[in-house]
């Protein structure tokens, strides 16, 4: 485990403060407008019944789900980019999100599969990763072959999702729809709890191999000379990325651009040469909560799924990355 430098520490603190502001706004803004003081009183159990209902029963669970999913997707994206040494290698772009969604939808629409969506999403993420890794051949997660293979797998998984939805009753398809666009409305308490546990375990494991991840910015011979066990580090990192992605998708569906935007912001703010896992998690949580707040308030009483909001915001940035690729390493 490596200790954070001064710049990274300041960045993490600043991102944490911004995240708290986003949480407060999410709990305060809506059909019933509340002040930060009223939110604090409600969280402390000292508010009037109406305020307590709005904050603790209607908005808090959704906000927590946004925090957890945003942090998990951002950490998975940062990790995948580090392993592949490519800024575009995020779970959404290489098909892990779509495969996890397809498997989760399969459990929701009922095709004879009785496993929970979280279990099915993990299975789908693992299958997509294994296929992409196998099709990439000797290069593993490195190089564009891995990304191209993942894009193809994601396209197939997306088509499978549409086929599943087209073959069920309209009410069943509507129940599964939030999984296809990314929405916190599809969350279940069980999935959120499983995600919280998985995120905690994943974060601790990543902190344990943070030094090894930092060395992956160098060539393989240099990383080996620095004492890094490349194969075990990559296998563990890939497994944790699948875990975080699968559990996040089981809660919110595919919101892939969080995994692109948050690590990019974290790398811009943190010291170069380090893998900004903590900063990515904080930025991802903030992005997700803010996007969900915009989705449910901008066109109220109509609600726009969070996946659509992040796509509107993130797609231009993705195009910018493609047109002006950074000369810096993704780590």
From TrEMBL:
Residue stretches spanning the membrane: 12-34, 64-84, 96-115, 121-139, 146-170, 190-214, 235-262, 304-323
GO molecular function, one term: transmembrane transporter activity
GO cellular component: plasma membrane
Mode of membrane association: Multi-pass membrane protein
Protein keywords: Cell membrane, Membrane, Transmembrane, Transmembrane helix, Transport
A biological process from GO: siderophore-iron import into cell
Entry's localization field: Cell membrane
Family: Belongs to the binding-protein-dependent transport system permease family. FecCD subfamily.
The name this protein goes by in its record: Iron complex transport system permease protein
